[in-house]
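Hi all, posting the design record for the shared folder.

TITLE: backbone redesign
STEP: 1 of 1
STRUCTURE INPUT:
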């Protein structure tokens, strides 16, 4: 007897069909994707493990992708370092060759100087002075003591013909009575001498009837070799600038966190333009790191008006209306900030007992002390100890530490900073009678500045610049980047320090050595009458040797120059990059293994055999078809159909 299906029966059949349909869809999904389920709920108790494994996999994959970007940056930096190192080695080789041959021939020869006496008027010479080898002689008609050149016997001739020749004989008798000076040559009224022995300030050189010899000039070969060296030094500065201004992944790599603009500003387009700025006489390329990297600004707000007084020749003194206008307070001493202060004359140091008391001060800074018993003076910092307790100063006659009793209460003592020696100050908007730039040669105990400048710009011996918001005094570093050292995470537990910036010691020393070679007037070819001071016969040689030492120090820290801050040599920078490469490669290899293991673990939980799933899908499909058929028959059956 056949029963007519009830509602409950129909619903049971429908639910069974839907269950079979769900199995079919699952097996069909598995056969297509190879995954057990479309959602984590389909994995049951394994879902938590899957989530954790996938989270670890994502972190690992992110590290791998970020490390690919970091690898690009390291490769780019390594390429720049290769360019810089090759340039440095090429120039060092060129400097060594130059110093071994040409540099000695650049200096004036021993017969390069000449003075001729031509005036037979005795009044032309009397009262004038001449300085030879540092000893000053005075032409006088009186037989006085000292270094006077006695002309009394000649004066008795009443200025007869040949007076100038007799003056020369008196000069010879005074400075060369024994004939032990083969470098000097006396020929009637002419005196030939080593060009470097005569002081340009000697008044006899500008006296009536005195002629000086032609200034020393280089021959064509010497001039060619020097120009070749300086041109290569200048183009090397341009190449290094380009190498350090490199960018990758949208940021400048040597900028110390300043990623939006190039870290080095080198505004010179030609050697001539560079030498016009750094003329080598009034403005020299900075010879220390503090001056080379100085960024400092002074306005009338700090100084009030300023007075620029000519001392002699190209030497000037700048005084501010406001006392200490060129100073900035670095340390206000008291028991809390420095503890006890000790002044050590033997070691030329200041010691504090408080940790980090002098951390704001760095090597090369020019300090001015006030409020002390014996040390109200200016000093140049040689080094600051790692604990910030001790400042050691450069040896500088007249500017060394004088011993004082230890100050348990140093209240009242102030340590200020000023423009570093060698800093070039741009004199902005001060009018036509002020040189556009000056170079600091010293800082006085009262905070006034000694500078050199082109004297041709100054109309009077003293120039006053009134208080005004229109003018300023500024120094600019070639480096415009930041000082941020970035730690780049390359794995959960490891990171790489990206602390290589274009102002590191290696690059600063490199720039300094190149700038000193490329600057103007490396060889002094002036007439002795135009020089204030002794002509330096070793000027060119000293510049070249200093550049070689700096270059060697920049390459591998083996030169005579001491280490200069972080990353002080190209070797250290290259070694750091190489170490980063090795670490990154090792970490990436481990990350890849971890990534594979995590993926395998996830797959072992999430994936199924697609062939088996396809068979089950077909079986489920057949079962579903049969189920739909039964359901259809059941639904279509009714009592009326049965009665019919």
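Okay, here is what came back for every position:
SEQUENCE:
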């Amino acid at each position: 007897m056949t029963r007519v299906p009830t509602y409950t029966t129909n619903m049971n059949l429908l639910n069974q069909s839907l269950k079979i349909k769900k199995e079919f869809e699952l097996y069909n999904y598995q056969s297509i994707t190879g995954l057990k389920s479309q959602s984590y709920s389909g994995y049951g108790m394994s879902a938590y493990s899957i989530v954790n494994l996938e989270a670890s996999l994502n972190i690992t994959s992110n590290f791998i992708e970020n490390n690919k970007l970091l690898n690009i940056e390291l490769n780019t930096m390594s390429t720049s370092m290769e360019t810089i190192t090759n340039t440095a080695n090429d120039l060092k080789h060129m400097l060594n060759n130059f110093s071994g041959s040409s540099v000695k021939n650049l200096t004036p020869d021993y017969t390069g100087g000449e003075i001729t006496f031509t005036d037979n008027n005795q009044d032309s010479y009397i009262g004038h002075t001449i300085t030879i080898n540092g000893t000053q002689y005075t032409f006088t008609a009186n037989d006085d003591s000292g270094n006077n050149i006695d002309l009394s016997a000649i004066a008795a001739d009443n200025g007869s013909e040949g007076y100038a020749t007799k003056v020369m004989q008196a000069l010879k008798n005074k400075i060369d009575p024994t004939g032990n000076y083969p470098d000097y040559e006396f020929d009637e009224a002419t005196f030939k001498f080593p060009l470097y022995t005569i002081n340009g300030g000697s008044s006899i050189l500008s006296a009536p009837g005195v002629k000086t010899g032609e200034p020393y000039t280089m021959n064509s070969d010497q001039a060619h070799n020097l120009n070749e060296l300086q041109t290569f030094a200048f183009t090397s500065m341009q190449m290094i600038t380009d190498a350090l201004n490199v960018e990758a992944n949208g940021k400048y790599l040597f900028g110390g966190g300043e990623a939006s603009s190039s870290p080095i500003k080198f505004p010179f387009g030609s050697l001539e333009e560079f030498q016009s700025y750094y003329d080598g006489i009034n403005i020299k390329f900075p010879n220390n790191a503090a001056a080379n990297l100085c960024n400092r600004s002074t306005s009338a707000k700090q100084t009030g008006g300023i007075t620029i007084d000519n001392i002699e020749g190209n030497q000037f003194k700048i005084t501010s209306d406001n006392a200490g206008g060129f100073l900035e307070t670095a340390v206000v001493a008291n028991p809390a900030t420095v503890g006890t202060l000790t002044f050590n004359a033997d070691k030329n140091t200041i010691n504090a007992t408080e940790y980090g008391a002098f951390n704001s001060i760095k090597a090369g800074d020019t300090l001015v002390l006030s409020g002390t018993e014996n040390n109200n003076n200016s000093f140049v910092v040689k080094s600051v100890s790692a604990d910030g307790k001790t400042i050691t100063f450069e040896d500088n006659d007249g500017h060394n530490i004088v011993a004082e009793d230890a100050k348990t209460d140093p209240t009242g003592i102030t340590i200020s900073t000023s423009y570093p020696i060698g800093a070039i100050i741009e004199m902005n908007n001060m009018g036509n009678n002020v040189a556009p730039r000056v170079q600091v040669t010293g800082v006085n105990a009262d905070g006034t500045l000694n500078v050199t400048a082109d004297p041709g710009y100054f109309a009077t011996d003293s120039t006053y610049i009134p208080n005004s918001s229109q003018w300023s005094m500024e120094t600019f570093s070639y480096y415009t980047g930041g000082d941020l050292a970035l730690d780049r995470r390359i794995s959960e537990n490891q990171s790489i320090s990206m602390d290589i910036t274009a102002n590191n010691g290696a690059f600063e020393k490199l720039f300094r050595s190149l700038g000193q070679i490329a600057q103007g007037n490396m060889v002094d070819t002036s007439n002795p009458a135009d020089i204030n001071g002794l002509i330096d016969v070793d000027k060119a040689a000293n510049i070249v040797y200093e550049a070689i030492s700096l270059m060697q120090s920049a390459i591998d820290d083996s030169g005579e120059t001491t280490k200069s801050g972080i990353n002080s040599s190209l070797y250290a920078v290259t070694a750091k990059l190489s170490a980063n490469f090795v670490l990154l490669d090792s970490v990436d290899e481990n990350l890849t293994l971890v990534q594979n293991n995590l993926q395998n673990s996830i797959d072992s939980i999430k994936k199924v055999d697609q062939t088996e799933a396809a068979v089950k899908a077909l079986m489920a499909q057949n079962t579903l078809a049969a189920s739909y058929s039964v359901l259809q028959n059941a639904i279509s059956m009714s009592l009326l159909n049965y009665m019919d």
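COMMENT: The chain has a mean pLDDT of 85.
Let me know if anyone wants the other runs.
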